[in-house]
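Q: Could you fold this chain for me?
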Amino acid sequence: MLGMVADTCEKTFRKNREEIIKMAAGGVLDAEVRVRYESLTCLGLLLNVLSPEAQVTFHAEMVPMLLKLMKGEELMKMKTRAVQCMTNFVRGLFNEDDEQGKEDVPEDHKNLLNTYADELVQTISDLFQLSIDQNYAPLQGEALALLSCLANVMQTYFVKYYNKFMPGLINILQTAPFETTAQQELRSNCIQTVGFVLEAVHDQKELAEEGANQ
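A: Sure. Below is the predicted structure, expressed as structure tokens.
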């Protein structure tokens, strides 16, 4: 409920964002799985409405907490919801409505993500592989969405991770079946992610390709 009313109460929520965020995050580590699920839903909505202040203010508490859930939750549905919440966190650092586009991403926002990038990238990689192994389309889509957002915000800093993902994404596009709806969605999501990654590293394309050939 808290997340659903955030859009209509944005000014009030921004004024009291510390209290609101703490209230929403309070249930994320609850022992009851349903409470964790709903808390993640609420927190994800708030991260959209209260961005980027919420991200800048609470990243030290929020990112480790979400990473813990992404790696530690047993249910695929819960892992997927945690990834969705992390995607909202990352997306909030980039104003997609800004006419200046990605050049307007503040340097401190990129540096903020750099602090967690190694662990976050490895977790995305592990979860994407898990989603493929278990043929769980929702997690496939969310892992790729998070990867796209991460590349979009980090921009040239993402070149370090180019070779970790690009060969696998290209391999999926070249070899994956294109018969079922899930297979078609996976291919579509991969195409979108490849686009974001290439755009992120285009200024350092030679460096990225050099790393890929090593």
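A (continued): Residues 7-213 form a domain with the Leucine-rich Repeat Variant fold (CATH 1.25.10.10).
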